[in-house]
Amino acid sequence: MNFRETRLGGCTKRGPCEYGGIESVARCAGGDGDKPCRDGLFDKNKAASIRRQLDKLNEQFNPAEPQSPRQRALRAEAAGLTNYLHVVGNLHC
User: Fold this and answer.
1) Is 34 domain-assigned?
2) How many domains does the chain have?
């Protein structure tokens, strides 16, 4: 079995991943509007770290120019992090 650690847990994809999983988890967790990656594994022990990342990311959202590539990327990343928190049952609103 292939395995490499990611920010959300791990990835079992054979070979390199074109989406990363380190610098961005939007594609891994379905933040881009598609289904989450079938090769991704979520580690609920990373939930506290992911909540902190989501808080920091939300601070960056408002200063970004509306509908800019930066704001769209931040939105997709936030959606992926939120999806992760829903799955592992650690979403605190």
Assistant:
1) yes
2) 1
Instruction: Confirm whether 93 is domain-assigned.
Output: no
Q: Are strands 4-5 and 40-42 parallel, antiparallel or unpaired?
A: unpaired
Rounded to a whole number of angstroms, the CA Rg of the chain reads: 13
| Structural domain span for residue 38 | 4-88
pLDDT in tens, 73-90: 999 999 999 999 999 987
- CA distance between the termini of the chain: 36
Q: How far is CA 71 from CA 10, 42, 47, 55, 75, in A?
A: 26, 25, 24, 15, 6
Residues 6+ apart with CB under 8 A from 68: none
pTM of the model: 0.88
